[in-house]
Amino acid sequence: MTASVSAALFWLLLAGAGVTALFASASERLSEAFSTDARILHRVLSQRMEQQEAVLNAAHALASQGVDEATLRTALTTLRRQYPQVVAAQRCASGRCRTLGPADVPLPRLPLSAVTESRAAVRWPAGGGPLYALTRGSVRVWVDARRLTDRLVEGSAPLAFTVTRPGSGAVLVSRAAPAGPGAALRTFRVQKVLGTDLQPFTLEVTRAAPWRAWPWLGAAVWTALTGGLTALITGLLRSRRAAQRALLDERALAAGVVQAATEAIVAVDDQHRVTLANPAARAALAHPLTPGTDLRTVTTFRATLSPAPFDAASFWSSREPTPLPDGLTLVQGTQAMPVEGSLAPLRGARGEARGRVLILREVGALHRRMLAQLETGERRAREHQDTLAHVSRLSTLSEMGAGLAHELNQPLTAIVSYSQAAARLLDEPEPDLGRVRHAVNAAVHQAGRAAQIITRLREWVRRAPGQARATDLVQAAQNVLTLCHADLRRLDIRVVTHVPPGAPVQADPVHLEQIILNLLRNAIDALERTPHAQITLVVEPEGSEWTLTVRDNGPGVTPDVLRRLFTPFTTSKDGGLGLGLSLSQTLAQGMGGNLRGANTATGAAFQLRLPQAGPPPASAGAAHQGGRP
Ligand code: ADP
């Protein structure tokens, strides 16, 4: 069945039901009105019958009392004036009937009954007709049935009626309804017996409901309305179906594009559970990616170009479109595939968050070669940087040679002294072994100190690629202070430290000490001619980082140098290379941190920040330590 046929059937049903209901309601209304009018007519006719009988009974009562004829005539004439259907009154005696007063119509002949009845009765003239008489005793009252409905107030739709005599069924009076235009749709009919004992005539009332009494306009309006409504609904349904088809087409198209794409496409919900994945994604991730799989658990990225590891947590939690960093590889077991792509939020029609979509592309052969070369370049740069750092360390050590020699000389001299003292004590006739043991222990302690310095120096001169690991920033600062001990003492520089018991940072220990040494040596150089020279070292937590601030009360950085502080070959020193700060900043950034410098009200301050390793920095009270070295 086509849609148009269904719509037409629907319309026919709806219109038919409405029209039927309208006509049924009109029919009920007309039937009720007819019943009411017929009831009124029946009551009026019944009353009029009773009126006639009342006139008869009154005349009989007067006649029985023996009033003279003139009085009787006057009384009856007065009574008749109120009841127009009573057209004449007669008094019968001795076989003759005399009409009392004028008769309204010619009276037919009515044979006299042999016995004068004392009870009221109805008498019919021979030949029928609308006239009949009510008799009682000597009195006769003539009734013209045609006048029964005189002065009857009727509505706009008069009734047709017939009054018939009981028994014979002869029509006493009949009135047809005035002919209206057109045929009647329905004729209402009712039959009742008039409510008097004497005249129980049969009253049949009919009324033809004319065509204009029916709700043609309402039916036409309803039919038109339902037609319009059906057309509207059909149109709406048709356009909805068309829109649905278009939507399905588009969806199929989009799904086709996603499935055919060579890029890996995976849509996830807010909890990173897979909702859609194309074949390229299943192949790239080597996983079936069934809906509900947590994408984070099956996708591992590794950074190649950047020294810092790929921050997966912040990547997956990003609410903005986030491109994957350059040089990222997707790890599949032992294989690593260089990829590029992005993670973008998905929004619904009203802009509400509907999850995210991850798009991955394996970088092309050319791109891959470029990345490989870039990586090689980066590796070389890192090697150069390591070499430079190494050379810089060697150069620093050679500059610190005198101080370091002095630093080593001290424990060696002490070892010699303690050993000589021990030998002397042993040469005594009764050597005091306790003192000998003390001298030997002191020599061992000094030898350990010297060994520590040498170990540090060996590590410094060792050439190894930088490798970040959990390192204590406070310990590193203390190691550097030990190396600079001789210079600090020579220049009488007071060192004040505000440091916690430990500050674990993610850093290469040698590079970290190299940075601190650069900062400390610059401060020492700046303080060479400063009276009451002081260096303050502060280690404190800041967010997810630890900071080390090296502050001095020297003359501060000259404005010229300050502008290019971290640019290589910026120096104000005779024989200075101007590489210390730029190298230190590069090393700090390579470890995920940074180095900044500025002048303060009383000198210069340099701040090194490094990411904390392990648990977040505790707000442990900082130890305070100060004094001349
Ligand atoms: P170099 O020490 O070889 O000059 P650096 O890069 O370590 O190279 O320092 C660059 C310059 O920054 C120094 O020459 C000096 O002018 C300035 N500088 C660094 N630290 C300080 C400081 N604490 N006080 C004053 N000037 C400083």
TrEMBL record:
What are the Low complexity biased-composition ranges?
Answer: 619-629
Q: What are the entry keywords? A: Kinase, Phosphoprotein, Transferase
Q: Where does the record place the Histidine kinase domain?
A: 403-614
- InterPro entries xref list: HATPase_C_sf (IPR036890), HATPase_dom (IPR003594), His_kinase_dom (IPR005467), HisK_dim/P_dom (IPR003661), HisK_dim/P_sf (IPR036097), PAS-like_dom_sf (IPR035965), Sig_transdc_His_kin-like_C (IPR004358)
Stretch list, region Disordered: 610-629
At the top level, the lineage of the source is: Bacteria
Which parts form a coiled-coil structure per UniProt?
A: none
Tell me a Gene Ontology molecular-function term this record carries: phosphorelay sensor kinase activity
Q: Give the reaction(s) catalysed.
A: ATP + protein L-histidine = ADP + protein N-phospho-L-histidine
Which Enzyme Commission number(s) are listed? 2.7.13.3
Which PROSITE patterns does the UniProt record give?
A: HIS_KIN
Q: What is this protein called?
A: histidine kinase
Organism, by scientific name, is Deinococcus soli (ex Cha et al. 2016)
